[in-house]
Amino acid sequence: MTASPKNPYARYGLLSMAVLAVLAGGAIGFMASNFTIRSIGLALLLVGVSLGRTARSNDPINQIAARSAASDRPGPILWTVAIALTLATAIALHFLYRDALHGYHQVLPVYAFAAVALICGSVWAALLARLVQ
Question: Residue-wise over 80-104: b if at least 16 C-beta within 10 A, else e?
Answer without folding.
Answer: ebbeebeebbeebeeebeebeeeee
